[in-house]
Amino acid sequence: FESLRHLCRNRPAEPALVKVLDAECAQVRMRTAYALSECGDDSLAPTVARLLTDSDATVRQNAANMAANLS
Question: How many angstroms separate the first and last alpha carbons of the chain?
């Protein structure tokens, strides 16, 4: 996911990755949020808001990182 994170940096969010943020598995949501955390795509704002209330703390933390990088 580190490589994917670098590929996403300062680029629009890949729709296929955004869909994965709805996965049942918290670890999958967390890793996907991590990968998208540096894209800075403002269209992710509603998704980030939802993830900030996720039941998993690591997902919430990565959502906060995503929020910090929105332009």
Answer: 22
